[in-house]
């Protein structure tokens, strides 16, 4: 909802052209190799731009295989597949202030996180059993193919059913879904220039389960780097993407 709201606002202001169903497969690097001039899509189309910011989540590892960047950048991103549930029409009263419930490990292998929503929905994660996908796994996986672990969904529903009468234990969740949480070897995000030798190619990714929480401050910092050459409000020293350049 946050992402959709930001996209809608930017579109209404005439600041955004949104393309869906397109996949970035490379960048165009100028002859001297110091700047990129556009992004190549899988249909051969080139989207030109003076600055390029990559926000590809777990699939950020793909940039290592892009022809123009092969051997020049390192981004050892992996993805943790996490299943989650949504319950609708729960008869839950409106919650005026944000609340969440964090549970300890239980007999079903879950450590539930329960997030009531203002519209009466309840979002559940912390179902346990989250496999970690390596970069080589991600390169052959389409985002649409990321499906929830049904056994973990059943375990999460069983755990929640013992905690509240607001859900129908016999009906099950209305939505079973999954995402890939992007994570780097040191568990810190990458925010900044992807390569010391390319002036206008940036990346912001690797926030693990805190993507929504950190999204706005990461976006502001990234905008400041692009416009002013450095962040004005926070230090990005620990998040430099080039810290992985020397890894084998």
From TrEMBL:
Positions of transmembrane segments: none
UniProt domain FAD dependent oxidoreductase: residue ranges: 2-224
One GO term describing the cellular component: cytoplasm
Cited Gene3D superfamilies: D-Amino Acid Oxidase, subunit A, domain 2, FAD/NAD(P)-binding domain
Natural source organism: Perkinsus olseni (Perkinsus atlanticus)
InterPro entries in the record: FAD-dep_OxRdtase, FAD/NAD-bd_sf
Listed PANTHER family: OXIDOREDUCTASE TDA3-RELATED, SARCOSINE DEHYDROGENASE-RELATED
Name assigned to this protein: FAD dependent oxidoreductase domain-containing protein
């Amino acid at each position: 909802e946050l992402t959709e709201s930001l996209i809608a606002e930017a579109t209404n202001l005439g600041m955004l052209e949104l393309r869906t169903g397109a996949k970035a497969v490379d960048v165009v690097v100028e002859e001297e190799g110091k700047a990129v001039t556009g992004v190549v899509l899988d249909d051969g189309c080139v989207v030109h731009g003076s600055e390029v910011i990559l926000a590809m989540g777990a699939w950020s590892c793909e940039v290592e295989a892009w022809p123009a960047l092969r051997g020049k950048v390192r981004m050892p991103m992996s993805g943790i597949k996490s299943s989650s549930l949504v319950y609708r029409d729960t008869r839950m009263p409106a919650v005026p202030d944000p609340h969440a419930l964090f549970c300890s490990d239980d007999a079903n292998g879950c450590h539930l996180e329960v997030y009531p929503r203002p519209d009466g929905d309840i979002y559940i994660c912390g179902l346990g059993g989250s496999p970690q996908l390596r970069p080589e796994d991600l390169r052959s996986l389409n985002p649409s193919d990321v499906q929830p672990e049904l056994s973990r969904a059943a375990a999460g529903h069983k755990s929640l059913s013992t905690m509240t009468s607001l859900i129908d234990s016999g009906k099950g969740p209305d939505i079973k879904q999954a995402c890939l949480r992007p994570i780097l070897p040191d568990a810190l995000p990458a925010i900044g220039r992807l390569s010391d030798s390319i002036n206008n190619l940036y990346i912001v990714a690797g926030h693990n389960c805190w993507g929504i929480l950190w999204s706005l401050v990461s976006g502001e910092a990234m905008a400041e780097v692009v416009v002013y050459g450095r962040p004005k409000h926070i230090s990005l020293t620990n998040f430099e993407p080039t810290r992985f350049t020397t890894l084998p």
